[in-house]
Design a protein that fits this description.
Blueprint (H helix, E strand, L loop, with lengths): L2 E7 L2 H13 L5 E6 L5 H15 L5 E5 L5 H7 L7 E5 L3 H10 L6 H14 L25
Parallel strand pairs: 1-2, 1-3, 3-4
Length: 147
């Protein structure tokens, strides 16, 4: 099984794990690292490496960072090591749910990273036609094009 470490600003990593577990239940080999301004980068790197070791049973670890270019992602990028760790930035709940499900079936870390990114993108939608233009201001059901 591929391990997963979520890393993000403030409590976003812990809270996203909590939301994911609400949907799919408690998951083994998933760690979180919440990044706060008062923790030096070298300490964050040390903590992240410990979390990687804690959830790696030999198939590698998927690091999921909240935002590309932010401190959590930069710390994660510093932990890349020869195919044993992969970093994905910009996680969302559908991506996490997909990662939790596929990591049991997928042994290729790079392929898993690609699959979860695609899932995260697939569930992002702009829904301009859901808003009803009548005076009620209600929302039409998905697929209801009559009004």
């Amino acid at each position: 099984m591929i391990g997963i470490v979520l890393i993000g600003h403030e409590r976003i990593a812990s809270e996203m794990l909590s939301a994911m577990e609400h949907v799919v239940g408690k998951q083994p080999l998933i760690e979180t690292l919440d990044v706060y301004d008062n923790v030096p980068p070298d300490e964050l790197t040390r903590l992240l490496k410990a979390k990687i070791r804690a959830c790696d049973i030999g198939q590698g670890v998927l690091l999921l960072a909240d935002m590309f270019g932010g401190t959590p992602c930069n710390i994660a990028m510093g932990c890349l090591c020869g195919g044993h760790v992969e970093v994905v930035s910009g996680f969302n709940l559908p991506l996490l749910i997909k990662a939790a499900g596929l990591r049991n079936q997928q042994s290729d870390l790079e392929q898993l990273a690609g699959q979860v990114v695609e899932s995260g993108r697939m569930y992002m939608r702009v829904a301009p036609h859901l808003r009803d233009t009548s005076d009620t201001g209600s929302y039409a059901a998905v697929g209801d094009n009559d009004g």
